[in-house]
């Protein structure tokens, strides 16, 4: 496994205008991300999609496999380099336009370390914090989704609670890390349509005030 600690990301690069989705496993981020991605003028990036599209023959792809292959988390500087390459590719493919598309970050940054590394490359308008007070509702959603997608191991109680513990330890501290005027709390213990309405009440004014009219 590589021990090279030198930064893989560029010292300078494009700055993307973004909103971040944060919330525990089972809160519905994936569902909202899919719906938001269908709206002109919004480009949704999930960490899962980003890693799945990673070229295993690339330098980052090979390093990623060294960690993922033994069940270890990818170091933050490598994750941000992968993200930069992914964003650059989407611009080149003309599926994402930084001038007209609001970037929705879902699952990245994962923790405070990644937040610091990604900061020079994004202009963050809001952190959309999806909250569901009933933890058992989220556990039920995770188990149901895992069974539906035939991921039996992920539906086991110990796995579900482990994912929750990792979120509480790694990701939830982001809510205190960012300035509180950036945080927009969303009640996720309601219908998907209502959650989407709450999110759009935040993103639409940002689109109107900061972006060119999107391509239809």
UniProtKB/TrEMBL annotation:
Keyword set includes rRNA-binding: no
Record Pfam families: ADK (PF00406)
The entry's keywords: Kinase, Nucleotide-binding, Transferase
UniProt record, GO biological process: nucleobase-containing compound metabolic process
CDD domains reported in the protein's UniProt record: ADK
SUPFAM superfamilies: P-loop containing nucleoside triphosphate hydrolases
Matches recorded under PROSITE patterns: ADENYLATE_KINASE
Keyword match Transferase: yes
Single GO molecular function: ATP binding
Family: Belongs to the adenylate kinase family.
PANTHER family reported in the protein's UniProt record: NUCLEOTIDE KINASE (PTHR23359)
Protein's name in the database: Adenylate kinase
